[in-house]
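Sequence in, structure out. First:
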Amino acid sequence: MRVHWSPFPGGPVWPVLMSAALTQTALNLARPTMSYRVVALGGDGTDIGVVTAAYALLPVVLTLLLGRWTERLPRVWPLTVAGALLLALAPAWVAVSGSVVTIAIAATFLGVGHLLFLVSAQATMVRLAPESGLDRAFGLLTAAVSTGQLVGPLLIGVVVGDSTGAVTESATRRALLASSAIALAALPVFLPRRGRRSPPAFGSATPSNLPSWALLRRRGVGVHLLVSMALAAAIDILVAYLPLLALQRGISPAVVGQLLAVRALAVILSRLSLERMLHHWSRHALIVVSAGGTGLSLALLPLPATGTAAVVLMTVSLAVSGLIMGIGAPLTMTQLALAVPPDSRSTILALNLLANRVGQVGIPAFAGLAASAAGAAGAVWACCSVLVCASAAATRRPGIDPLRAR
């Protein structure tokens, strides 16, 4: 007997959520470990930059193509399985590789696997959920993703620990093979759905084939892409600059891991509480608060402090920002889905992923310029300014009718 977690007419959502948690755990274990692997093989910061760029480059090119393709497929589970397989094979390849070039190639496959999984998982949720259930669907999906973002980095400390020198090579190999095993564990979770023929989004019969520029011109699309981009970039800024801020305050790497875990846990809690929030406030109001509130709460992070006071200040800032930040992503996804025709929803969600990737390159570059002038604090405050501006833009251009968005 299949367990339905929600009254979605298309079928149970638990296979999507479990596979999302497993694959994201694998991804967030593999990516930092790959950087350690580069160092273990004699690479430097430039080599790590090349590997990071290789991870992001091909998905930027493929995102919209996959979104369009997904709209025409009667079943999307093959894309999900393909994504999980690539997420399993790429770390295993890195584990047995002996060169940075090979790691960069494997990172490309890892990025494509991540993209395949996200596009297909979002399309599956759109097909399973009615319009009234989109907030719940995206809230559960992003909560599952955040679970992987919480567990994956914590596993690095368990598997790699404080290994250095030659020991790092064997330790990273173990971590990468563990990542592969976790990604493979997602396959039997999703494969039972292979016999189901997924209906097109909300029963649409023929794709509208609206070009991407036409989708971008629809009311509310641009501003919600901006908010989503700013929130996604904020996560990267935190991962990049929190260790430097902590170092300046004499805070150990172990505590930094705990701080990031606090933020991830807060995000999960906010996404699981999303339906309750929507009983009291409109979707538009919550999006505005999510972007602006995240910017304001993160602005506390670089304030001067030392010792216990610094840890307390950072904990409060990250916990509050996590609670507020977690609201934005699923709600902007719903707003984007409602702003376009039903048969263009996979494309607009793929376009959202593309915008997030662009923002994760451009906004950190802007933050880096600020950091060159004002240090790590300047980088964080630059990101906060982008979030506040995105919130202001959302206030001025709310998109679809807020009453319909309840």
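Second:
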Amino acid sequence: MRRLLLISLLVLTGCATSVPVKMGFPQVPEALDKPCERLLPLAADKKELSDLLENTNDNYARAKECNAKANAWKEWYETQKKIFEEVK
């Protein structure tokens, strides 16, 4: 009876030991890692300087907005990754 109790205690103690689990920081989702939209070309029938300036302004605004979003996302991701790694 003592042996059975001792064996049971050893088996249960062996099951209670914890195995360290290494967690990694999640990778960037593919949807958030896509490039910016292509800029709009000037239509062939637009020949005025005002059309060219309007198209240039629109494209510049699109590019700046996309660049700002991408940089903000990358900065946030890198900051969160650094915090995650320091906590370990």
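Remark: The two ends are 45 Å apart (CA to CA).
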